[in-house]
Design a protein that fits this description.
Length: 335
């Protein structure tokens, strides 16, 4: 009974957000991405739709988050790249809730049978819908917030955003890795600004593309909240970009046995200025030394699949609150 009341309390904490607040729901897609953004205007954008199958698990969780948020449609659905844990759930979701405009980086570069199947299912799902292909430097037209695209289709912005253009000392000693020819490197990445609050989401962008944003100059500036790139794998999350962003809070959309690598976890946790690292799952590979305290983990039991989520409410003065739906634990970060 006590656990039920705690979870209800976390629901109410999010529902009680005012009309002037930005809400972000980090839905548990078991190591995929499904991030629902609800702007103060009432318009919404979903970033990726998780995995297909599993009896409609991920699409069902997204619809539940939308219901909690009080919205009846997804105005924009951004597909960061064409991998199953990001685009796979799109057809199932589109059958459950109306979607206004689909956004992506253009055609997939992957050509295997699995990639062709994913692409075909996605193309069928977006038939007769509005479709927007974005490029670095472009804007996503979600009302009452600014969403600036910084990477797409393997390209990156060449000029700095407001607050960027500083030399980045964290680049020293950070070397490129082998080129990544996959869709990960072509992820759509963006910076969202709402008043003084800033949020970064780069999909599954990999190391070398991160360096194009962070070295030798930081083109992005700093953010308040960083959605840990690529579920916390260490072929992403270069120290150069994490320290350039200088986040106060990070949220990791890992699975129990996907992402959350100890090396990447340590880079983020030890980033100067980071106050807390929230996780959707306890990372089995990390053990006790490379996981956050349990109160910051939505799903700490690796053998269970309850689908608890993490939610964030941000105010235009730059302050924000993060809530764990499992236990009702919430923490407010002042401006």
């Amino acid at each position: 009974m006590r656990q039920a009341m705690l979870v209800l309390g976390s629901f109410l904490a999010v529902v009680s957000a005012t009309a002037a607040d930005l809400r972000i729901y980090f839905v548990d897609a078991e190591g995929g991405q499904a991030t629902l953004i609800v702007a103060p205007s009432g318009e919404s954008m979903l970033v990726d739709a998780g995995w297909p199958g599993n009896n409609g698990r991920d699409s069902g969780r997204i619809v539940a988050a939308a219901k909690l948020a009080g919205i009846q449609r997804i105005d924009y659905l951004l597909v960061t790249h064409y991998h199953a844990d990001h685009v796979g759930g799109v057809p199932e979701l589109a059958a459950k809730i109306p979607v206004g405009t689909f956004i992506d980086h253009g055609p997939s570069v992957e050509t295997g049978s699995g990639a062709r199947k994913l692409t075909a299912a996605y193309q069928k799902a977006i038939e007769n819908h509005n479709h927007l292909v974005v490029k670095p430097g472009g804007l996503i037209p979600l009302k009452s917030v600014d969403i600036e695209v910084v990477t797409a289709n393997g390209e990156a912005i060449s000029s700095a955003l407001t607050g960027g253009d500083e030399e980045n000392p964290a680049c020293a000693g950070v070397k490129p890795l082998a080129p990544d020819p996959s869709e990960n490197a072509r992820s759509v990445g963006f910076i969202l600004s709402y008043g003084k609050f800033r949020f970064a989401d780069f999909g599954d962008l990999t190391w070398n593309k991160e360096l194009s944003l962070a070295c030798p100059k930081n083109l992005l500036g700093t953010v308040d909240v960083y959605l840990v790139t690529h579920h916390g794998y260490d072929i992403s999350n270069s120290p150069a970009i994490v320290r350039a962003l200088h986040p106060r809070v990070a949220v990791m959309n890992n699975g129990a046995e996907k992402g959350g690598s100890p090396k990447a976890w340590a880079v983020i946790r030890n980033s100067p200025g980071l106050e807390d690292l929230w996780q959707l799952h306890y990372a089995v590979a990390g053990g006790k030394d490379h996981n956050s305290p349990e109160q910051f983990i939505a799903n700490p039991d690796a053998s269970a699949d309850p689908g608890y989520w993490i939610a964030l409410v941000a105010h235009p003065d730059g302050s924000f609150t993060v809530t764990n739906s499992r236990n009702g634990f919430a923490k407010t970060y002042q401006r």
